[in-house]
Structure formats: C-alpha cells, structure tokens
C-alpha cells in the first residue's frame, strides 16, 4: 500500500508547528499519514507541484507565506474564495481520470470568521488589520462577512505590502506613514 503524505509549504518554514499538530491529529483519528514541512521559494514551487503530481500518496498541502498567491496558477482548479481573492492556503490532491488533480481552497476566511464568532463577535464595526499581505486579503473578506463597511490597515512598510485588498469601489490605498482605509470586497 502507498503511504499517505501531506505537508506544509512556505519560506521560511522551520518554525512551523503544523507537522506536530497534524501528526497528532491524524494519530488521534487513527490515520496513518506522514505530514512534513518543505521550505520552498516561489521559484521552486512549479517543480514541487510536478513532484506532487508524479509521486503516489500525496493527499494535501497547507500553503503559507510567501506561496499563497504563487501556488494559484499551479493548481488544476481554484474553488470558492480562493478564486475570488487570488490566494489559497490549502491544496487538496484528488484522483482524476488522468492522474492527480490539485484543487486550491482558502480556509483562512472561514477560520477568521469563526474565530470572531466563537469569541462572541457576530458583527464588527471599525476593524483594523495589521499587515497587508495575502492573509490580510482573507481578513478583509472575513470582516466583510461580519458586517464591516470600512477597514483600517496598519502597514509597517508599504513597499513590502502585497496588492491592495479588493474593495467595493475597486480601489484601496496603503500608506507606510499613516493607516489606510478600504472598503471590503463585495
């Protein structure tokens, strides 16, 4: 029988607790699955995606910085909010008629939304997002689901921030010297 495999991908990744957490969860569930960590740059990602397609046993990937947007063009299909936001954090490896099919998802939005709801916040009024990278895009979508009309961003270095979050007006701005505000995506 082929060993089942999954992994977290990012750069740097050595600090990640994902392998320990996933191995413990799979162990409790009685699932024999090896969960590893791969330190990859965006330039190394196409070769790794080809490896996943060619090696038997792969079931999924957790994707973190700086690969969330870089992996999108490498999957066969992008589902739900991953398609809308242009960033993913989960890749499911499914069986297809011609071999493995890589499907991208964004579970960050649901995780953020449910964390707020679990904390008793069903609605938000004046949220602030610290940072402006790909996870900030998910935070904006989650905050929109929680009723935010405008979102303030605190950005340390505007030159290192990613693209602005989508907004109802189609524009958003960022500033390193003062916070910026943007409407959440429609």
UniProtKB/TrEMBL annotation:
This protein's pathway reads: Metabolic intermediate biosynthesis; chorismate biosynthesis; chorismate from D-erythrose 4-phosphate and phosphoenolpyruvate: step 4/7
Keyword Amino-acid biosynthesis in the entry? The reply is: yes
- Annotated region (Disordered) at 157-186
Alphabetized Pfam families for the sequence: Shikimate_dh_N (PF08501)
Q: Which residues form the Shikimate dehydrogenase substrate binding N-terminal domain?
A: 8-91
Q: Mark out the compositionally biased spans (Low complexity).
A: 158-186
Q: Which UniProt keywords apply?
A: Amino-acid biosynthesis, Aromatic amino acid biosynthesis
Q: Which PANTHER family match?
A: BIFUNCTIONAL 3-DEHYDROQUINATE DEHYDRATASE_SHIKIMATE DEHYDROGENASE, CHLOROPLASTIC, SHIKIMATE DEHYDROGENASE
Query: What name does the UniProt record give this protein?
Result: Shikimate dehydrogenase substrate binding N-terminal domain-containing protein
Provenance organism: Sinomonas cyclohexanicum
Lineage of origin? Bacteria, Bacillati, Actinomycetota, Actinomycetes, Micrococcales
């Amino acid at each position: 029988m082929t060993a089942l495999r999954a992994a977290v991908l990012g750069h740097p990744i050595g600090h990640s607790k994902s392998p320990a957490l996933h191995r413990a969860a799979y162990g409790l569930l009685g699932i024999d699955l090896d969960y590893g960590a791969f330190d990859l740059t965006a330039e190394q990602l196409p070769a790794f995606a080809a490896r996943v397609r060619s090696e038997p046993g792969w079931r999924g990937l957790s994707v973190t910085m700086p690969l969330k947007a870089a992996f999108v063009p490498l999957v066969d299909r992008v589902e739900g909010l991953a398609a809308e936001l242009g960033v993913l954090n989960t890749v499911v490896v499914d069986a297809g008629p011609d071999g493995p099919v890589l499907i991208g998802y964004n579970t960050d939005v649901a995780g953020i939304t449910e964390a707020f709801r679990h904390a008793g916040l069903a609605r938000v009024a004046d949220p602030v997002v610290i940072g402006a990278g790909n996870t900030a895009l998910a935070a904006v979508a989650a905050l929109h689901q929680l009723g935010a009309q405008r979102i303030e961003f605190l950005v340390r270095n505007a030159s290192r921030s990613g693209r602005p979050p989508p907004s109802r007006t189609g524009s958003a701005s960022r500033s390193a010297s003062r916070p910026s505000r943007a409407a959440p995506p429609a």
